[in-house]
Amino acid sequence: xPPSTDQPPDDLALMRRIAAGDTMALKHxxxxxxxxVYTLCLRMLRQAQDAEALLTDVFFEIWNSRGRYDxxxxxxxxxxxxxxxxRAIDVLRRKGPTGIAGSMRLxxxxxxxxxxxxxxxxxxxxxxxxxxxxxxxxxxxxxHRRIIECAYFxxxxxxxxxxxxxxxxxxxxxxxxxxxxRLRDLLRPEESP
Amino acid sequence: xxxxxxxxxxxxFLLGSAEPAEAAEFQAHLARGxxxxxxxxxxxxxxxxxxxxxxxxxxxxxxxxxxIESRLSLREQLEPGTDSVPAxxxxxxxxxxxxxxxxGWAVAAAVAIAIGIPLWNAQQQLASxxxxxxxxxSQTESIKDLQxxxxxxxxxxTTLRNQNEQNRLQLASYQQEVDLxxxxxxxxxxxxxxxxxxxxxxxxxxxxxxTLCVSKAQNIPDGKTYQLWILPKDGKPxxxxxxxxxxxxxxxxxxxxxxxxxxxxxxAVTIEPAGGSQTPTxxxxxxxxxxxx
Lengths: 193, 293
Fold this sequence. Notes:
A: mainly alpha, 9 helices, 69% helix, disordered N terminus, B: alpha+beta, 4-stranded antiparallel beta sheet, 8 strands, 47% helix
């Protein structure tokens, strides 16, 4: 984001204000991340009502457990996505095999093509992040990418992925390791192509 | 298992999908303080949780924030200033949904009813109490308004009673004058100094009083007053009361006839210094002669 004389508070400042009981900070945090959270909820749960319910649950939990966030362990955005994903997995598990299977069956490629134009109205910073991640994913081996998606978005175990993709478990494990290492390298700013 | 081998289960461990035995082994390893694995874990987490940012962004539904705000508000109302959260509020929020999974919803509805009815009742009671308080406040304001009106009416009533008393006294006075005029002997009053003035002198023999009534009497300067004199057959005029005319010029004065004035010939009025005199100051303003019957 370009420098500005009236830049909004960063995520860490917002989380500190939320910890102090500032509901306006929660509103700012919501405005900044609600779309990303909702998008993840929708991607994992596949139903708008479930996704909306989870969206509100997540931010309500952010408020109720505001003393729990440890800023030395993860950034607020990472903490938020981890919480969202964890709660989405809880929802899928409550639904049983049909929830996981449904998510898995519908788990086609949901990422934009790397060259796709950015969504209108998105914040510049988000656009930059998105473009950088899209580019990294585009450079990732297709199998590695698919395996990581199945693990992250569908909550599948390595054994389930092996069955789903009809590949040996060992291949899945090594692909996950290699894919993660490659993605990590691609997302490092100094090593981004 | 070596640290390198543990890289294979880094993602499942992070995402909670590792096999229980593998997860326990990795957890124990981390607990022993391996910096390499701890660092790799943190790095993997930061990498993985960027994945959602590449999804096609979909705006959050309108009204979602209002739902959160309502829950926060409800929580604050139920337990103001506390961090403990009622179970009903921490239960996953469920918006209206059209689904064929009716059994699950039926169970959820039953739970919601079990939890929600007491809460709903409490809210209804609270709303009812608030309405009653608002009604009582409104009634109190109405009573205050009415009390103010009653006070105003009491003030007006007091004023009317005072006026009525004054009117009653005035009426009694008029009645007395009418009686006097009906039963007393009356005599013409001459006004040699005041051409417009006219008057009568009433002699009430029963009451032994003389009443002088003169209209259009002139106003007199400050420090001066009209004074009545009884004129005996023999001797000097007897000084009586002083009086000033009202705004209309009406001069009215009643005096007792003293015993030593039994044989009097009339009455006269002069202008004297305020407080009256013992000897009349000429000229005479009004005079009436009586003829005893």
